[in-house]
Model the fold of this input.
Amino acid sequence: MMEKDRATIEYYNANAGAFAASTKDVAFASMQQRFLKHIPQHGRILDFGCGSGRDTKYFLEHGYSVDAIDGSEEMCRNASAYTGITVRHMYFEELNETGVYDGIWACASILHVHKEDLPDIFQKMCRALKENGTLYVSFKYGTFEGERNGRYFTDLNEDGLREVIREIPELVIAETWVTGDARPGRENEKWLNALLVRR
Done:
């Protein structure tokens, strides 16, 4: 783990139970299905920063093969218990597979990566995808970079996303869209969602 990420990891270790409780029952099927339309039946998915395990559980229940990782040991424990699979404790920069996944789901996870490190993380995700594999990412919408509520955030808009992946020609943005937060009472918080394809 990079030293500058320690505070964010410790936040999730300290608040794993409360965070999981606030997110695991959020209705997210429309987003999950939008991603799964691009994944072959029974395809292999990496839940990259799985948090509560909500999405891992959904993908498993719909017949997909899922690997799940998280940088917080406490979140891994909680998500393993919730999903019934072993969630690996791993940091984003440790991803080292090549051509393994039909899809990578990075929902509200890599937004904690410092902006200068994001191109390298996108490159690692791109490498881990099979040809024509699909990557889903989401970021809080905007241009803010810094600590907020005890965690580091990199917010992105459409231009920011294009800038981050500009030197990865094999990774193409298929679509972007903006949504409100799915958690009750937070609908006014805007999110950038994107599907990218490895060519």
The chain has six helices and nine strands. The mean pLDDT is 94.
